[in-house]
Amino acid sequence: MKPNQDIPNNGFGHSTDYLAVDNPLRDIDVLLFDLDNTIYPNELGLLDRVEARMTEFIMDMFQIDVATAKELRTEYYHEYGTTLRGLMNKHKVDPEAFLAYVHEIDRSHVDADHELEELLSMIPKRKVIFTNGSRRHAEHTLGKLGINHHFEDIFDITAAEYIPKPNAYPYQKICEKHNIDPKRAIMFDDIARNLLPAADIGMTTVLIESDNPRAMEFHDDERIHFHVVSVVEFIKRHFLNIS
Q1: What confidence category does residue 14 fall into, taking pLDDT thresholds of 50, 70 and 90?
Q2: Is residue 11 part of a domain?
Q3: pLDDT over 50 (residue 8)
Q4: Which residues have a Cβ under 8 Å from the Cβ of 90 and sit 6 or more positions away?
Q5: pLDDT (0 to 100) of residue 71
Q6: 145 and 35 in one domain?
Q7: Are 230 and 41 spatial neighbours (Cβ–Cβ below 8 Å)?
Q8: Does residue 225 share a domain with residue 138?
Q9: C-beta contacts of 226-232 below 8 A and 24+ residues apart
Q10: Would you say 123 and 26 are in contact if contact means Cβ atoms under 8 Å apart?
Q11: Structural domain count of the chain
């Protein structure tokens, strides 16, 4: 069965033996989730708030206007993978000071995601957050969503020694740290290019689609095995066989 085909209902319901013998996901034992715009929908706007804080940080650092700061933020993101990496390489910015500042955002509008919480509880597999953001941001966000207890760890940009996805290094590092066999792992991300290195080392990949053209660049690459609109949709259709 090809990875992008629908998996027929196997009649096991929600027991721990919910995957059919011919289901290509049966041997998966680790689920890796990106955080921003992946574990939660982009409509929450959290990443927009983080990016606004990045712009403020750059404005204050260089004493420049907002338009110039946005341009620099975007330039470094495209060139280095993250704005932080560009600031570190070119201006020796303290990464922890930057991360603390940009992730100090208002999350008061974020409600618990009861559906996602219930679905995650039905999957008896290891789950890890794999993010280019900070551990603190992930902890706060997962806490607001009410799902932090489902994840054994948060592998953040600090754990990756500030080398962001899609560089190959953090994928190797997370596998080493958590004793992950890539061939038994599945990765979810909303940025297509971040999934390609995962596939290259044997992981199954899931793209959370959006209307962001930059994020969807490489979306038609054959190394992206599934295309869905949300983590909830994927779990329902491909793990639990709920239509």
Answers
A1: very low
A2: no
A3: no
A4: 76
A5: 97
A6: yes
A7: yes
A8: yes
A9: 226/3, 226/4, 227/4, 230/41, 231/33, 231/38, 231/39, 231/116, 231/188, 232/115, 232/116, 232/119
A10: no
A11: 2
Instruction: Tell me the chain's radius of gyration from C-alpha atoms.
Output: 18
Task: Report the pLDDT value the prediction gives residue 117, as an integer from 0 to 100.
Answer: 98
Contact 20, 8 (CB under 8 A): yes
Which of these, 212, 210, 174, lies nearest to 30 by C-alpha position? 174
Q: How would you label 42-66 residue by residue, b for 16+ Cβ within 10 Å and e otherwise?
A: bebebbebbbbbbbebbbeeeeeee
pLDDT at 31: 98
Q: Residues for the chain: how many in total?
A: 243
Q: Which residue has the tokens 């689609």?
A: 209
| Rounded-to-integer distance, Cα 4 and Cα 1, Å | 9
pLDDT digits (tens, 9 = 90+) for 128-187: 999 999 999 999 999 999 999 999 999 999 999 999 999 999 999 999 999 999 999 999
53 & 154 share domain: no
207: which strand partners? 189, 227
Query: Which residues form the domain of 203?
Result: 30-40+112-239
Q: At 189, which CATH number? A: 3.40.50.1000
Peptide bond into 166 cis (omega under 30): yes
Which contiguous run of DSSP H or E holds residue 202? none
